């Protein structure tokens, strides 16, 4: 393996990007909204005043409004990232639980980045049968390079969403206990979203909580699931029903791992990238429209930029609402419909991003039926997802009844009322609300299902 | 059921007891100790300076030193509790996660106490086959009395430590999902320590965390396991290996539930009461020596006093060290030996307190071999446990090897070093340390095992 750059040189070369953006007054679009949160009342994001768990009130404008000079900056930033191979750092600001996201090419060849976040003498790498042959040795080398005190064990789980359950999770506990891992050990998640979610929940629960590092190897995990501390497993009746909010020590995104990613997996990740544009970052959406071919062709600088900008958006939302009291729910655009597809169709039949893509089209359709967005947005969403070769409608087996029955146990149901993330206003604005005409939901379901 | 007293009258009648005790300078006994924590360095409790997770430094003297006038107060307090049937309140001070422990006779007939801590419209009572016929109806009545908006469901688990595992836990998730419980629901643990630990972990993990109330019905749960937020299940290779720190909304101790408690269970709880005396409250230990017959005869005022004083001790320790960075580990006196007995002998063969009693005798024996305590303490511990009809030695099947192999995966092992809670100095003082002569541990194991 390549020799590690010395620690100081990495540190000094870090390009630090703050996830905290300045707060600007609401746009004229904003509806007046009281600061107190209640079930069903719509919260308009990002352009409304929203009530957060901490009691803080945040007034957020869309990214473009906060930084009018951002369009030229996009081009500069992409160039800058293409020119350098040093990691970019996006900080997730959560007080004592804050952590960095390192993004860059070849980061798995930088032992210092990983080793600085390992505490204690034992590490358990949790990965799967697909990723282990590709990157497990590399990660073990990075963890042990010039570091003889550390013992690294690994557990290799079967690959796929259908194994994201309590039974598979027990294999992680079995291995940790057999290896006598103690409270000072570190769990490392090496893989996609399923591995990250399961390893994170295992780390949250093993001995009531141990250190934890995320090394996401899919675009989906790099832009979304590895950031923000949502961990868990599925239940036969619902996605991610059992889990914990548990933050990692760091997230290490080596963009080189995308070189081995199947095309379907790449597209699946793009569904979440598109989401950030739609819910809060119109300029990012416009950039995606112009650069979709580069993303699909795996242009390294385009991918690196998409990952960075996605992580910045996610980090900002998570910093403001870690436990999903309100704003964080907006990251679930298309996910209520999408989770219903994944659960009813059978976990793993469709990739998560594929189900989210179809779910996004449905959420956008419903927003339009409510009169909350104009039809140009509907068309642009349809086009960009189709360009990314993502599904734009649910699988044929999905009936209206199937949607309704799974959506009834969605985590965003409160006191019997299903709350949804819907677009409202110009591109980049959304609401999280239980106040919508039920007829529109019915019409959308009937429009997308044969019965 | 009895009509509820109106809320204001309960409030005004609450006898509030602060778990925060004033901080006094260390006794002359104290050893000088640096503020930084390291594996193996002994922390002397309660009379030493200890380093806590929060970075705070606490100097704590034993309870008797902090309040020299405490002995007469004990008598007064017992009288006061015997005279009144209003709840005593012990506060667990954990910032935004603070909560009250209500202690009193007939509290399950006070719907307001429970209802004020229920959020949302749905409640899931988790109980077992022994407790359900005795108290489930009473609890459901208390939850629904003049409160038609609330729906109460229940899940009745098999009774016993051997069912404290992931498989049984899944029954709680199954029921919650089948009943479409949402994030605003409340889980209520009605039972002993096993039910409290499992229901608490279920509440911590269901939808990544829902409200949670403890109604402990055994002395063990009332004086120890229901307070402090330690939740979890066992693994075949170790006790409580999988779980979470998750605090309840309140703990409601109706001392009347002890009337139906089997004698063995009562004695099991007394083992934890004795523990508080030994590790930090010499006067409480002396009170127990004088009042053991009253406790065994279930004298209501003696039991209520023992519960209150135990909860005060536990609340104070938990407030200072919620996540067990140091001081909280002292609550595990006798537990490392005890957990080894429970795991190797088979979960449920002995009650938890029975194993802890034998483990306490072993820890005290080892402390004496190290020259850390004089033999009068050894004799007093032996006598009080024998008076309570608790085991004073491990079961015959326990070998030195069995102890060693299970203790190697104890949660208090750090980087391969087993840390133990041992008594040191006068009655009421202990240390949590990895710095002890291994020979003493070996001698103790050989003294208590046939091979």
Automatic annotation (TrEMBL), chains A, B:
Its cofactor is a divalent metal cation; NAD(+). Residues 155-267 form the 3-dehydroquinate synthase N-terminal domain. It catalyses: 7-phospho-2-dehydro-3-deoxy-D-arabino-heptonate = 3-dehydroquinate + phosphate. GO terms for biological process: amino acid biosynthetic process; aromatic amino acid family biosynthetic process; chorismate biosynthetic process. The keyword Flavoprotein does not apply. Pfam families: DHQ_synthase, DHQS_C. Keywords: Amino-acid biosynthesis, Aromatic amino acid biosynthesis, Lyase, Metal-binding, NAD. GO terms for cellular component: chloroplast. Pathway: Metabolic intermediate biosynthesis; chorismate biosynthesis; chorismate from D-erythrose 4-phosphate and phosphoenolpyruvate: step 2/7. Residues 269-413 form the 3-dehydroquinate synthase C-terminal domain. It is an enzyme of class 4 (lyase). It is found in: Plastid, Chloroplast. One of its GO terms (molecular function) is 3-dehydroquinate synthase activity. Signal peptide: none annotated. It comes from the Eukaryota. Gene3D superfamilies: 3.40.50.1970, Dehydroquinate synthase-like - alpha domain (1.20.1090.10). Catalyzes the second step in the shikimate pathway. Belongs to the sugar phosphate cyclases superfamily. Dehydroquinate synthase family. This is 3-dehydroquinate synthase, chloroplastic. It comes from Canna indica. The lineage of its organism: Eukaryota, Viridiplantae, Streptophyta, Embryophyta, Tracheophyta.
């Amino acid at each position: 393996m390549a020799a590690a750059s010395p620690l100081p040189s990495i540190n000094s070369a870090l390009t630090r990007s703050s996830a905290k953006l300045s707060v600007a007054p609401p746009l004229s679009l904003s509806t007046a909204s009281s600061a107190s949160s209640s079930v069903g009342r719509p919260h308009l994001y990002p352009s409304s005043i929203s009530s957060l768990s901490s009691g803080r009130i945040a007034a957020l404008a869309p990214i473009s409004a906060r930084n009018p000079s951002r369009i030229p900056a996009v081009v500069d930033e992409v160039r800058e990232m293409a020119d350098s191979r040093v990691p970019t750092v996006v900080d997730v600001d959560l007080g004592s639980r804050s952590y960095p996201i390192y993004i860059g090419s070849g980061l798995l060849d930088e032992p210092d980045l990983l080793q600085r976040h390992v505490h204690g003498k034992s590490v358990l790498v949790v990965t799967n049968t697909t990723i282990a042959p590709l990157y497990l040795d590399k990660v073990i080398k990075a963890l042990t390079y010039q570091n003889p005190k550390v013992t690294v064990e690994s557990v290799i789980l079967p690959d796929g969403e259908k194994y994201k359950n309590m039974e598979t999770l027990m294999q992680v506990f079995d291995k940790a206990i057999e290896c006598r891992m103690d409270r000072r050990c570190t769990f490392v998640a090496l893989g996609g979203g399923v591995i990250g979610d399961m390893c994170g929940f295992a780390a949250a629960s093993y001995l009531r909580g141990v250190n934890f590092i995320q090394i996401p190897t899919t675009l989906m995990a790099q832009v979304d699931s590895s950031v923000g501390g949502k961990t868990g497993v599925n239940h036969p009746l619902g996605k991610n029903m059992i889990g914990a909010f548990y933050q990692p020590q760091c997230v290490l995104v080596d963009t080189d791992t995308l070189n081995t990613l199947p095309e379907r997996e790449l597209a699946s990740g793009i569904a979440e990238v598109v989401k950030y544009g739609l819910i809060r970052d119109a300029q990012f959406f416009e950039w995606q429209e112009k650069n979709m071919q580069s993303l699909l062709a795996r242009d390294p600088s385009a991918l690196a930029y998409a990952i960075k900008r996605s992580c910045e958006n996610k980090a900002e939302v998570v910093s403001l609402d870690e436990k999903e009291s309100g704003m964080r729910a907006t990251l679930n655009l298309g996910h209520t419909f999408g989770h219903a597809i994944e659960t009813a169709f059978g976990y793993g039949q469709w990739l998560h991003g594929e189900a989210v893509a179809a779910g996004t089209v449905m959420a956008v359709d419903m927003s339009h039926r409510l009169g909350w967005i104009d039809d140009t947005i509907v068309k642009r969403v349809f086009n960009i997802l189709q360009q990314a070769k993502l599904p734009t409608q649910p699988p044929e087996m999905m009936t209206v009844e199937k949607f309704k029955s799974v959506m009834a146990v969605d985590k965003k149901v409160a006191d019997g009322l299903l709350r949804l993330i819907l677009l409202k206003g110009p591109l980049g604005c959304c609401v999280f609300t239980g106040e919508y005409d039920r007829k529109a939901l019915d019409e959308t379901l009937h429009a997308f299902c044969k019965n």
